[in-house]
Design brief:
28% of the residues lie in helices and 0% in strands. It has one domain. It is an all-alpha fold.
């Protein structure tokens, strides 16, 4: 599955605990990554400094919703936010 245009949910919803260029302490959940471009694409995709977490997070129908989902960005944000809550250390 390919990323949907104008989404960026995977660059906003999850927390990232490893350094990101421009965000040396990572980023909290719900905060857009500084590397998220205006067209909602990643500025460092394919670069060695891209966090392993980002490279491992691949779009899927489960995460992004199927073709019948009206607002796939909202769906993905909600799905990823729920996953963030379920996997947050206590």
């Amino acid at each position: 599955m390919n990323c949907k245009p104008n989404c960026g949910a995977c660059c906003t919803a999850p927390s990232i605990n490893s350094p990101i260029p421009g965000m040396p302490n990572g980023k909290p959940a719900g905060v857009p990554c500084i590397q998220l471009l205006d067209d909602f694409r990643c500025a460092i995709i394919g670069q060695p400094e891209r966090p392993a977490f980002c490279a491992s997070l691949q779009p899927s129908e489960e995460m992004c919703g199927g073709e019948g989902i009206e607002n796939q960005k909202e769906y993905a944000i909600n799905w990823l936010s729920n996953l963030e809550r379920l996997t947050k250390p206590s």
